[in-house]
Amino acid sequence: MTVNEKAEKSIIKTYRSCIWNKFIQAIKNYDLIQDGDRIAVCISGGKDSFLMAKLFCELKKHGKQNFEPVYISMDPGYNKENREKIEYNAKLLQLDIKYFQTDIFGVTEKVAGNPCYLCARMRRGHLYSFAKENGCNKIALGHHFNDVIETTLMGMLYSGQYATMMPKLKSTNFEGMELIRPLYCIKEDDIKKWAKFNGLEFIACACRLTEKAANGEMESYRLKTKNLIAQLKKEDPLVDINIFKSAHNVSLDQVIEYKQNGVRHNFRERYNTQERLKEE
Description:
Layout: H1 3-12, H2 16-29, E1 38-42, H3 47-62, E2 68-75, H4 80-92, E3 97-101, H5 104-108, H6 116-133, E4 138-140, H7 145-158, E5 168-170, E6 178-180, H8 188-197, H9 208-214, H10 221-235, H11 239-246, E7 257-260, E8 263-266, H12 268-271
Parallel strand pairs: 1-2, 1-4, 2-3, 4-6
Antiparallel strand pairs: 5-6, 7-8
C-alpha cells in the first residue's frame, strides 16, 4: 500500500468519525458546496490544507456533489526547503497542484509590529484572483475547529468584540466569489493524529514570526489563547465545545449592542416594546 493509499483509506476508516464525518457535517450544516461549483482548494503546505485537499479527493470519489475541485498553492516567499517540501508532499499524496508565486513575505517583513493581519489580507486577495483566473467561484481554506474557537476568544480578550470565524463568506472585492471553510468542525488534534498515523510531515506557516515563536522569542495572541483554552480544559473538558457552541446560541434579547450590515443597534431600540425578560 502506498503512502497515498494509506492516507486516503485512513480518512474513511480509522478517522471516519472525527475527520470524514465532521467534514461532511460542515458541508451539510453550512451549505458549503452546490452543484456546479468549481472550488479552488488552497494548499498552504501545512497539515490542515493537505488534509483538506485529500478530503476533497475522497468527496469527489464517494460523494454525490456535481462539483470540480482545483488544487492551487501560492508561494508567498517560502525558502527553498519549504517549497520543495510542499512539492514533495503533493507528489506523495498524488495531488495535481497549480502553483503561483507572490512576494507577500517580502512586503510584510517591512511592516512594523504584527504584520499577520496584512499577510492574511494579501494572501486572500491573491488566492481569490488566481482562483478566478482559473474559472473558480469559491476558494476553500483549511481553518479548523480550534482556529474558530481561538479567533472567537481572541476577539473578546484582545479586541473587545464578539465575532467568530464564519464557515463561509461572500467576497466584497471579487464579485461572485465565496470563501468556504470545510474543516470547520474538525479538531486540530485529530488532524495531527492523521498526519502522524500516515508518517506525513508538513511545513508550518514558515514566516519570520512563526520562526520567532518556535525559538521562544515571542508569544503571539493566538498562542496565548491556545494555551489558555488548554489550561481551562484541564478543569472542564467541554470548554472548547462550549466556546464553539456559543456562536450558534446567541440571544439578541440579551445583547447590549450589535452591528448588522455595518449599522449599530442598541437594546434600547426595542426595550420599550419587548416583553419583560425573565429575571435570572
